[in-house]
Every structure is written in structure tokens, then in C-alpha cells.
């Protein structure tokens, strides 16, 4: 079906917003350093996420902290993304395991450890140090710090989970993708960073907020899956929910995925089974659910947070093939 002019205009608006982004100096310098060390991601990705953050930042973050929080979460995104690329793009478990000690143990990676890429490890340490230094003045860092470290560990575990599924596609299952792989979207750590800068947030509402974030992160993951699964499949990454569903339902076999030189026939077969549309319908159901819960807190606007996820999906769809 040919896109209408309204659809084309709608899709171009997020791309226009991304193109007009000027990254803050702290992020821009890290991006320059990233490009000297890696070639996995285009600058578009960092501009894309920086452009999008205001749409799903908690309303409890006052204006005086908003720009700094936006920068912090962009730096955090780079940390997680580089860890992800070490596994998915480079198959470098040694450097990944050394680098993740930064948030798990507060310890620098050992560049002399066997198999470690010292240049990559040094860059990850630079990114993490920039993030930690940026938290120095967070009003509620101590209150939410332990939860943040726990949540970030779940995100990095999800990164490793995706790699394990890609290496062992016979273990692929949609329950694991929804409950585990969705942590890859960093939604809980992003929320914790917001809360560190939310002086008026009521702790009594923390559970209500986190209950909603469970659904929001799956919604974010679905948007990511719908727009990246074809590229990732060609790259040997079989962890996207669309592909996992195809494996679980026998639409494709692990042997076909790992043995194919040309994945286009597999892509067409998956499309023909309507799996993408099922994920779109699930996103709609989750969206209706979170919108019904939008009045469950007083110190943070949950309805605004839920509306922001609609913009996240819009950005995902508009940027298909660009990140």
C-alpha cells in the first residue's frame, strides 16, 4: 500500500526534529571519541535518543534539572549501547565482562586481562566516569542509587541474554523476550535517573510508577523490534520478538536462520504470517492499559508518561533503517 501524503509528513516530523538536534558538548565529545573507537552506530542514534527524552521524562523533574537529566540519560544510553555492541557486533565477551564491572563493582576494567580490547575498555570507562560525575549533584542520588544499580544490572543482563539467544536460537521463547529482553530498553534506569532529580516525588508512589514502567518498557521494546528485526536477522541477531515468535511457532527453524546466505525469503515468510501485526495489536492493548492507570499518582503525571510512549513508537516507525 502506498503511503498517503499525511503519513509521509507525519513520518518526516520526527526525522526533522532529530536532524535539528544539537548535542550538548559533553555528549558531543563522547560521540567524537566513540567514532574514533567504534564504527557500529551512526551519530543519528545519539541525536535520536536525545531528541526523544523530553517525551518520556517524568513530570516530577523540575525545569532546572531537565537539560542535565536529558544529557545524563544520553550518556547512560551510550554506556549500555557500547556494551551491547561489544557482544552483538564484535562477539567480545572478555571486554564486555570486564567493562560491566564498572557499574556492578565500581571497579575499572583491567585492560591487561586476557582477551580484553584495551581501547574499547578505556572508552567504556570514560563513558561511565562521565555519567557518574554527572550524578554528583543529584538531590536524591542516595535514595535511589541502590535501585538504579539493580535496574541497570537487569538491563546489562538483558544485553547478554540477547547474545545467548542469538548464539543458541533453540532456546528462543516469547515469554523470555517479553519479560527479560525488554529490559534492554533501559526504561527502569532512565526512571531512576529522573527520580534522583525529582525533589517532590512521593516515595509512596514508587510502586505504582514501577508497575507502569513494566508495560512501558515492553511497549518501547515492541517499537524497537518492529523496526529493527530485519536488519538484526541479517546480522545474525535472532533475539527480536518477531523472530523469536517465528521460531517458537515453527515458521522458521534455527537451522534455516544460521545456515542461510540470503535471509530475504525468511523475512518474507515471517511477514506473511502476520507476526508484526500481532505485535502492533499487543502494543495497542498495553497502551490502553497504561492510559487507564494514568491517574494513579499525584507527584508524577503518569498519563503524560503514557502519552510519551506514543511518541516513542512514532519515532521508532519514522526512523526504520536509520538506527
Explain this structure to me?
The N terminus is likely disordered. It contains 16 helices and no strands. Helix 5 runs parallel beside helix 7, helix 8 runs antiparallel to helix 10 and helix 11 runs parallel beside helix 16. The protein is mainly α and 323 residues long.
Q: Secondary-structure element order, as H and E? A: HHHHHHHHHHHHHHHH
Category by helix and strand content? mainly alpha
Q: In CATH terms, what is the architecture?
A: Orthogonal Bundle
Number of strands: 0
Radius of gyration: 20 Å
- Fraction of residues in H or I helices: 55-70%
Roughly how many Å apart are the termini?
24 Å
Query: What is the number of independent domains?
Result: 1
Main β-sheet description: none
* Average pLDDT: 92
Shape from CA axes? globular
Low-confidence stretches: 1-10
CATH-assigned fold name: Farnesyl Diphosphate Synthase
Number of helices: 16
Strand content range: under 5%
Instruction: Supply the CATH superfamily name.
Output: Farnesyl Diphosphate Synthase
What is the CATH class name? Mainly Alpha
